[in-house]
């Protein structure tokens, strides 16, 4: 298995796992939906889960891999405000939780880079 095939398989798997998690355990995701978004937090949680599952499927399929990887990068950028909200909301929590919330912020850049790498390698 080449590095690029591992990269797209791992990206598709990660996105499918996160999308599934949004569906089966939505409550933690509801808490980080920015209040300024219209509608219910649960709706946004489910919508983002569906988007992650769609990105996973698109990345997994060779004909849509490039578009799926670009959509994944865009989605990771779009959900960044939720990560900022989580870090702000968790600033008074215990150190391990606070570290996890703050640690998510710089981690988004490598995720976006990973998706862009898969897009570049797609045929």
UniProtKB/TrEMBL annotation:
PANTHER family: DOXX FAMILY MEMBRANE PROTEIN, MEMBRANE PROTEIN-RELATED. This is Membrane protein.
